[in-house]
Design goal:
Largest sheet: 5 strands, mixed
Shape: globular
Bound molecules: 5'-O-[(R)-(carboxyoxy)(hydroxy)phosphoryl]adenosine, zinc ion
Strand content: 15-25%
Number of helices: 10
Length: 347
């Protein structure tokens, strides 16, 4: 089955075509064509600006789709597609609508069904693309991106429930806000982690600062990162002037606090379940320390560990096509009721 996937939930305009076969519990995929365009226009606003995202998606989605079809040796008139998978939420509603309206247009033109996809399920399913074996369930997935921080119990590829989530800022958002406090431009995550790496390389055993680990002792599996950001702000005010070294050390202490918090909560989720597999996904997994610490955690827990490739960790359309395949046999959607759902949840 050939699926064209469309992703426009945030600041990536992405289209892919995959060929999918097999049972949905042990599916296999090959990518026929794929393109992701990241909107850089948001940098000046320090975050993603919804109406600008919408305008850019409207401008870029048709040529990207044509380009991907061409890459696959097809065309708008001869697409050879069996279904269209499109992100219906969560995300920025004006941005989501662009993908949905375009999917509806193509669906009519090509006479193929639409499979609406939950973006977070896409992130979880992104790990299937890079594995040949079938994943053992149940699994616990930690989803960390600019918009979300969620611990999810994955019963199988179609049944999820949220175990814990952030009560305020998402992890990526916290990285971006701390970066802004240090005068670094959006997206700040990679810049903070580069500074933290420098600090560890230059002064391996002498961290200068320590920030609180938010909600680390709470009974639940929820997160909160806005207080941590405030601690960083107070520290910066106290220091008055920031040298390159203090910036590096702040980044390091912030990253350490985030990583310890994520690890502690994920470990707790395993203690409370019989999960056999750990999945981490979302744009923040590009962070090297996070990758390393979670790999070590999986070893310590004796569970399988899945992490998408960096290309599939940030928003992309391959993960949307894959999640679409998992729902290929669901009840057909009514075009009139298909709509953007900015706050769509996994359960
Ligand atoms: O999943 P994603 O591409 O988009 C959303 O759906 O949000 O995640 C983007 C987020 C941004 O907040 C960015 O700063 C963060 O991921 N990020 C990182 C790193 N690379 C990207 N955060 C920490 N360390 C990194 N190396
Ligand atoms: Zn995402």
């Amino acid at each position: 089955m050939k699926i064209l996937g469309i992703e426009t939930s945030c600041d990536e305009t992405a289209v892919s075509i995959i060929e999918a076969t097999g049972d949905i519990y042990s599916p296999s995929f090959s990518v026929i064509a794929n393109m992701t365009h990241t909107q850089t226009e948001h940098e000046q606003y320090g975050g993603v600006f919804p109406m600008l995202a919408k305008r850019e998606h409207i401008k870029n989605l048709p040529p990207i789709t044509e380009h991907v079809l061409k890459q696959a040796g097809r065309s708008m008139d001869k697409p050879g597609i069996d279904a269209i998978a499109v992100t219906e939420g969560p995300g920025l509603e004006p941005a989501l609508w662009v993908g949905i309206e375009y999917a509806k247009e193509l669906s009519q033109k090509w006479n193929v069904p639409i499979i609406p996809v939950n973006h977070m399920e896409g992130h979880i399913a992104s790990v299937i693309a890079s594995t040949k074996s079938s994943v053992e369930f149940p699994a616990v997935a930690l989803l960390i991106s600019g918009g979300h921080t969620e611990l999810v119990h994955v019963n199988n590829w179609k049944e999820y429930n949220i175990l814990g989530e952030t009560r305020d800022d998402a992890v990526g958002e916290a990285f971006d806000k701390v970066a802004r406090l240090l005068d670094l431009r959006y997206p700040g995550g990679p810049k903070i982690s580069a500074l933290a790496e420098k600090a560890r390389a230059s002064r391996p055993n002498s961290p200068q600062f320590h920030f609180p680990r938010p909600m680390i002792h709470s009974e639940d599996l929820d997160f909160s990162f806005s207080g941590l950001k405030t601690s960083v702000l107070y520290k910066i005010r106290e220091l008055e002037t920031l040298t390159e070294e203090t910036k590096e050390e702040i980044a390091r202490a912030f990253e350490d606090a985030v990583v310890e918090t994520l690890i502690t909560k994920t470990k707790k989720a395993f203690m409370e379940s019989n999960a056999k597999t750990l999945i981490i996904a979302g744009g923040v997994i590009a962070n090297k320390l996070i990758r390393k610490e979670f790999e070590a955690l999986a070893k310590e827990l004796g569970v399988d560990f899945y992490i998408p490739s960096t290309e599939l960790a940030t928003d992309n359309a391959i993960m949307i096509s894959i999640a679409g395949y998992l729902h290929k046999d669901d009840k057909a959607v009514d075009m009139k009721t298909l709509k953007a759902q900015g706050n769509l949840r996994l359960n």
